[in-house]
Amino acid sequence: MATPGIEQLFEFQRLPKDGFLLLLFLLYAPVGLCLMLLRLFIGVHVFLVSCALPDSLVRRFIVRVMWSVLGVFVKQNDSSLRDKNVKVYVCNHVTQFDHNVINLLTSCNTPVLDVSPGFVCWARGFMEFGLTSSRSERAESLKQYCSVQGSLPLLLYPEEETTNGKTGLLKFSSWPFSVSDSVQPVALSVKRPFIPANVEESSWILELLWTLFIPFTVYQVRWLPTVSRQDGDSSQEFGNKVQELLAVKLGVVSTQITRADKVEHLKRKRHIAPHTINSNQSLGARPRTISLGFMASNSMMEDMRISGMVQQVKEVLPHVPLGVIKRDLVQTNCVDTTIANLLEGAEEMNSGSSGGLSVAAIQTSSLNAIGATASAPALKPAAESFGRSTADRHMSLQDRKEALYEYARRRYIEKHGLNRQTDNTQ
Hints:
Elements: H1 19-52, H2 57-69, E1 72-77, E2 88-91, H3 98-103, E3 111-112, H4 119-123, E4 127-128, H5 135-147, E5 154-156, E6 168-169, E7 182-191, H6 204-213, E8 217-223, E9 227-228, H7 235-250, E10 253-254, H8 259-282, H9 289-316, H10 322-332, H11 335-344, H12 359-370, H13 390-393, H14 397-416, H15 418-425
Parallel strand pairs: 1-8, 2-5, 2-7, 3-4, 6-10
Antiparallel strand pairs: 7-8, 7-9
Helix pairs in contact: 1-2, 1-6, 9-10, 9-11, 10-11
């Protein structure tokens, strides 16, 4: 299965693109508005009942039935595989209400990690955990929680961000797999008519209103057997293994796209449209529908082509942010040249950019990622392609660093004219 581009992992448009579906949606809209108002009234009672009843099988059954009145139906497969002794569930992340759905099937806690605790946090069903300064501290605190006798299992999202759940999984973070040596994967898929289950950069309140507006939403939960860490496996290797199992169960692709890549992609999308408008205004261009449509079509095709090349580079250099790769590809228009630039230090990386890495770190991580399946690139700072000779390909990392240092020193001397100053003093 081909690796999807980052655009294919997320939904950015709420309304259907198909004309017939859009017509049906518009005809349904008056009914949906009445249904939403009615369900808002019922939803208040659902919240009060869930708060009043103690956590038990009876409470989960009653709340699940009331959720069906709100148009949310929860199905589960292979419930006999659910391990009552496991302390950590790991699940793919599709909507902002995934933890509420899992809680209808079994008791578990989902820690809120990036939001300050408060009433809203508690009302949404999160466990108030507090903010931590690092992932290691977060994992250590959760590990201590799991060691307490009688504590409820944790529900964690290794992707750390939502996707559309249709094409691929984000790269799993390693910290959830350092909490426990045994985890149970949970595969979650969501279906609803007319509109996607989740749209990026939409608040949880807006998503809740759309859920009440739509006639129904079906959550499908599938339990996988518990997976234990093998001797010698690191947390990242353990996470990669679980990621592959979930991807196979969901019928999607396991990608190397991270949460940081998604954040940078969304940031770039927010600034593309304003930048284009400002550029047209500064040039004094008049509105021309045909020309703009043609430009938009060409721009879309160019973005698709660049995205394909970005994924090729990302497979070789998984630790380099997508934004850095794309900037270099726009200039070089060549996959091999961009890989060589990133490895040899020709691409200048700002330390303040999102996920920025040093050249030495990129070289080290890239060599680890490539391993024995690919040849090492040329190590001359000014080279434009990978080394062809055996000596170049087997050059040590220390030699590469020394060559880069010498190249940077020579560029610095030429830029500031230190040679001419030395000659004048002599």
